[in-house]
Amino acid sequence: MLGNLNHVAIAVPDLQAASAIYANKLGAKVSAPLALPEHGVTTVFIELPNTKLELMEPLGENSPIAKFLERNPEGGVHHLCFEVDDIEQAQIALQAQGVRILGSGGIRMGAHDKPVLFLHPKDFCATLIELEQK
Ligand code: CO
Q1: Which residue segment(s) compose the domain that 30 sits in?
Q2: How does the average pLDDT of the chain come out, rounded?
Q3: Closest by CA position to 110, among listed 56, 38, 55, 61
Q4: From ligand 1's centre to the CA of 44, what distance in Å?
Q5: Quick one: pLDDT band at residue 104, thresholds 50, 70, 90?
Q6: Which one of 7, 55, 59, 76 has the fewest CB atoms closer than 10 angstroms to its CB?
Q7: How far is the CA of 48 from the centre of ligand 1 (A)?
Q8: CA distance 63 to 46
Q9: Number of folded domains in the chain?
Q10: Sheet with 52-58, side-by-side order of all strands
């Protein structure tokens, strides 16, 4: 089922400070910030030869990463995103195994305008998993 690692998402309390750390300490090429109000985050991307890092800062009142940052005030790895060839098949196969899907139980449009599913961290070694249609 699993394809490439599309991105590793890191929640941060201060996007500008986090971008500067990656740019200055690691020489990373960091994109301009992109506000995604419908997803409750502002993000920057760091393109790597084989994948991407996504730094995310909360945006607005009900950001889905607000609780994570309450528990991890300095930020931390928030989720891993793997590509799948067929997200509907993936959903069927996972639900058949009792895997819990977050949100209202289904596929939705992700932050990169592709269909995604989020899988419950309790079913994956305490790691939030995002699956994205390739
Ligand atoms: Co993601």
Answers
A1: 2-133
A2: 96
A3: 38
A4: 12
A5: confident
A6: 76
A7: 15
A8: 22
A9: 1
A10: 34-36, 41-47, 52-58, 5-11, 76-84, 128-133, 115-119, 108-109
The catalytically annotated residue of 54, 57, 130, 132 is 130
Rounded to the nearest angstrom, the distance between the alpha carbon of 20 and the centre of ligand 1 is 21
Of all residues in the chain, what percent are helix, strand and coil, respectively (each to 5)?
25, 35, 40
What is the CATH number for 67? 3.10.180.10
Span 68-77, pLDDT tens digits: 999 999 999 9
**pTM given for the model:** 0.94
Distance 25 CA to ligand 1 centre (A): 24
Q: Is 83 a catalytic residue?
A: no
- Cα(130) to ligand 1 centroid in Å equals 6
Q: What letter does residue 21 receive in the DSSP assignment?
A: H
| Per-residue buried b or exposed e for 44-83, using 16+ beta carbons within 10 Å of the residue's own CB | bbbeeeeebbbbbbbbeeebbbeebbeeeeebeebbbbbb
